[in-house]
Structure formats: C-alpha cells, structure tokens
Amino acid sequence: MSTLSDGIQDGYALEFRETTYRLPSGVPLLTGLNLRVARGETLVLLGRSGSGKTTTLKLINRLLEPSGGEILIAGRPIASWDPIQLRRGIGYVIQDAGLFPHWTVERNVGLVPRLEKWPQEKIKARVSEMLTLVGLPPVEFAQRRPAGLSGGQRQRVGVARALAADPPILLMDEPFAALDPITRADLQREFHALAQRLQKTIVFVTHDVREALFVGTRIALLEQGRLVGVYAPAEFLKATEPEIHAFATSLEFDGTQEGAR
Amino acid sequence: MNWYQFLAENRGEVFERLLEHIGLVGASMGIALLVGLPLGIALVRRARLQRWVIGAANVVQTIPSLALFGFLIPVPWIGGVGASTAIVALALYALLPVLRNTVTGIAEVDPAVVESARGMGMTSWQVLWQVQLPLAAPVMLAGVRVATAMCIGITTIAAAIGAGGLGVFIFRGLAMVNNQVILAGAIPAALLAIVADSGLGYFQRSTARR
C-alpha cells in the first residue's frame, strides 16, 4: 500500500489549485486559492480572524471538502485518498491541543500508531522517543492525564502526538495562541529548531505576525478568503500592500497580540 | 399493628412483591436503555428530528401515570391488565431522561477533542466508542439514575392495573384505610430507590474518574 511519504520525495508536497470553499448557505470562506508548499518548508498562513486560514488547513486533511478546485499532495489529488488513511499520514495540532482527557499522556501520544496497529512494544518505544523529543521526560509524564499538565506541557504532548506516526506533513492551527507569552516564546523557539531538524512539510496557521516571521520559511497572507501574496519573512515587512502594512505596523506597538484588529 | 410488624408477619409476600417490583423496574429500564441509548446517539447530529423526538418524550412525561396506565389497557398487543402494559408505560417514562442525557452528554463533549480525533484519522465509529461515549458516560449515567429512581416510584402505581409490585400494599392500605399497610409498601419502595440511586451514583462517579 502506498503511503503519503512515498510520493513526497521532491518537488511540491502540497498544492492548492483554484481551491474554493463555500458554506452550505453559499457564503464563501475561501476563494480561488492557488498555493504550492515545497517539501520540508514551514509555510505560515497568516491572517485575521475569519480570513480563511483555518478553513484552508481543514481542507488539507479533509475535515472540510472543497466546493471547487482541488488539492494535491505529492502530485496526487487528495480526493482520491481514503480520508481516514490520508489523515493518519498528516499530523494535526490545534489550539488547545485537543488531547483526550480520559487518556494518559502515553495513550494520547500513541493514538495514531495504535490506529495503525503497530505492535505494543514499538508503540511504547515510539511514545518515549516522542515525549523526549518535545522535552517531557517519559518517566515523569507518560502516566499523567492532560488535566494534570500546564498549557505548555499539553501543547508539547499535542506536538508529540502529531509526530508519533512520523507523518510527512504537519498541520498546526494556532498551536501556541492560548499560552502565556513566555511559554509561547519557549515553544516557538523549540518548535523552530525541531522543524529544521525533522524536515517535515509544515502548514502553520497564526494571526501573530511576530510568530509568523519567526517560524515561517514563507508567509502566505490571507484576507477575507483570498490570498494576498506569499513572501519570505525578509520581504514581508518591506512589501507595500496595504494589508501587509496593517500587519507590519501592528508589530511596532505590540507584536504579540492581535494588534491588527 | 405497626408497619414493621406487618412487614415481619407478611415477609413472604413482601419479598415476593419486592421481587415483582424489581422485575418491573428492570424490564422497563432495560427497554428504555435499549431504545434510548441508540436513539440518543443517532439523534445527536440530527437537530430537527431531535426536537421532535425529545418533544414527544416530554409530552409523555406530562401524562399522569395512572392515566397512562389506563390509556394503554385498551391498546392491542401491548395492552390489557397486567405487567406487560405496566412495563410499556414505565419504559415510556424512563425514556426521556435516558434519551435527553445521552444527547446532551455527547453534544457537550469538547468539540476540539472530537475534531482532533477526526483529524488524527479515527473513523466515526472509533470517535464514538473511544472518545464521545466515554466522555459522555457520567452525564448519560446521571440520566439512567434519574430514570431508575422515577421508575421505582411510578411502579407502585402499576399495582392499580394488576401488575403487582410493592404498590399492592399501598392500594390495599388505601382500601382498608390503614396507613400502616400503606407504609409497608411505601417504605420498602423508598429504600429500594435509595439503594438503586446510591449504587448507580457510585458507578457514575467511577466513570467520571476514569
């Protein structure tokens, strides 16, 4: 059976072609998106609330189905995948981590390997490896419940869970937005180092310009469901579009909050 | 003669009536669970149908129990005098709390948790069994608890249509104008309700801890 990793050898890991998403009521949330994500890069989707960035992310793992256009992973339309198999090959981290409160950290992290019916021993070893990777010593954390963890620790577990089955693609939806500024800065720094080391293709959603500039290899700015442009971090602040200007000036007084509102 | 003297002297019949009572409650709760749990699960994502079904169950709740027992007697198949009519009526009463708490319990599971479960590649069946039901269990069990306590109480009235149970002593006491005989039915029924409720309560707390 082919897996997502087989196809993503070189070229684009992910491609949007004229992708549109409308609510059943007809209201468009995303209009004619054309975007390519190279293998191993961290593409940031930046935008205000309601700009379509989370919609874009959910189209990738088929939590939403596009109303028009298509999305390709490794050159193959995702509509041709079984959604369950597709999702198991794509790591997913959301704002409050979405950990299962009735499961231990160990069981949470081992979720996808267990769904994929890995042998017990291999799962256990992988969970320990992942917890160590995100800076949570397994001896101390494996048997704890999410409720007994701090926000930052929960988010680390969320990242460990997303990486457990070694997916080639990682989707992150404002993963650090609910954390206090100091914890957030720590996690951003560690995540940045991790992303460079693991060479995953990452799509990272945020409304925080400073975070976008720090973690992104490229920044795609969305505004009202349309792509304004894609920029390298260095170009971003020099760009002249008024939408970018609004974001860039927000940095001057408070880059850590949603200053652009 | 005091109610406890009556109980002591008639302990054979009291025990028999108690078993009848438990049987009626058990059978009707069994039906209510068999219908209410799957129906509740099926209704979670069907808002319109959910309003209708829960509305109908609400209407049933407002019918006085004695009247409902009476209404069911002429109904073919399920009707007539005796236990089967009583079981149908009791199951109808127990349905609402079971149904409503199943729907509410599942609907109240943190949407972020369900979404991450789907996003990680769990099938809908896996999401239901491994995530939604375990997390909804305390709320669902609270519904079962309410339904059981209510059912034990209403079952005393089932004696009026010849279904037996501890209500037999209550109606006999009413006919004899003897409060002690009424108490001989009412007190064991109340104790049964307390025992069932605390047992289920213990079970509920143990699921909440998991």
Note the main sheet of chain B: none
Integer-rounded radius of gyration of chain B: 20 Å
| Average pLDDT taken over every residue of chain B | 88
Using a beta-carbon cutoff below 8 angstroms, give the protein chain pair with the largest interface and the number of residues from each chain: A-B, 26 and 18 residues
CATH topology of chain B: MetI-like fold
Please report the number of helical segments of chain A: 12
**Helix-strand category of chain A:** alpha/beta
Strand content of chain B: under 5%
Which blocks of ≥5 consecutive residues of chain B have pLDDT under 50?
Answer: none
Counting DSSP E segments of at least 2 residues, the number of strands of chain A comes to 10
Low-confidence parts of chain A: 254-261
Q: How would you sum up the major sheet of chain A? A: 6 strands, mixed
Written as H for each helix and E for each strand, in order along the chain, the element string of chain B is HHHHHHHHH
Number of domains of chain B: 1
> What structural category characterises the helix and strand content of chain B?
mainly alpha
What is the CATH architecture annotation of chain B?
A: Orthogonal Bundle
SSE ordering of chain A: HEEEHEEHEHHHHHEHEHEEHH
**Separate helix tally of chain B:** 9
Helix content of chain B: over 70%
Find the count of extended strands of chain B (DSSP E, 2+ residues).
Answer: 0
- Helical proportion of chain A? 25-40%
